[in-house]
């Protein structure tokens, strides 16, 4: 339970990378949820299937572990078995700003202790696949939600820090939180923006600590040295879980605090 009936707390976890990251989440999520008194948990699961997408079983396991919503990003399309689940499982999101007519949906509204909370998933365009404008799409979605809830949480899956910062500033005051995913490297800029939106450029990842964005370092080094298209493999060492807890005022939808989370997992 949250500290007050007038607030709720959302726990966000960054990209889950491979079996190592998933096992650490399974082992630690319930304790993490209790430790921050989280009322809902939003996890980015797009790298859970050995770094590329998520499987049907992986989705089920993350929900069983305590996820309220699973967000994703550009790798969601790489495990074809999950495509049908995108339509049938409302708690599994893909970025909302892909063109119309593809499987899935980019938002979910859930009830948390009698309060409706909207979770939106959008994807950036800078150094990413060419898709629709996330700025315009987010604005349209937020307007459509105005009568339903004041509490809106966004996972912005994007590469470029300038695009992420601009996106957060663009939505400041109209949503409760904007947290970035995709780069797998946690940023140290968690803060409340001037109009009341919690913001962090990137949450980081739930994956191997001694790695290159979660993958075997030597492969990344050899790819740089040889320019060969070597495929990444998830590293197998000790896992670090990265995320953030955001405390939100129920009446206004404004964020009151954002606290980064870094936890080394032993399992």
Instruction: Supply the number of structural domains.
Output: 1
CATH C-level: Alpha Beta
Secondary-structure class: alpha/beta
Mean of the pLDDT scores? 94
Number of helices: 6
- The stretches of 5 or more residues where confidence is low (pLDDT under 50) are none
**Beta-strand residue fraction:** 25-35%
CATH topology: Purple Acid Phosphatase, chain A, domain 2
Full CATH superfamily name: Metallo-dependent phosphatases
**Helix percent band:** 25-40%
Assign the CATH architecture: 4-Layer Sandwich
What's the total number of strands? 13
Distance between the termini: 26 Å
Backbone CA Rg: 17 Å
SSE succession: EEHEHEHEEHEHEEEEHEE
Main sheet makeup: 7 strands, mixed
The shape is globular
Short description:
The protein is of the alpha/beta class and 267 residues long.
What is the topological layout?
Layout: E1 7-13, E2 15-16, H1 18-35, E3 40-44, H2 56-65, E4 69-71, H3 83-88, E5 107-112, E6 115-123, H4 134-145, E7 151-157, H5 161-171, E8 177-181, E9 191-192, E10 198-200, E11 205-208, H6 217-226, E12 239-249, E13 255-265
Parallel strand pairs: 1-3, 2-11, 3-4, 6-7, 7-8, 8-10
Antiparallel strand pairs: 1-12, 5-6, 9-10, 11-12, 12-13
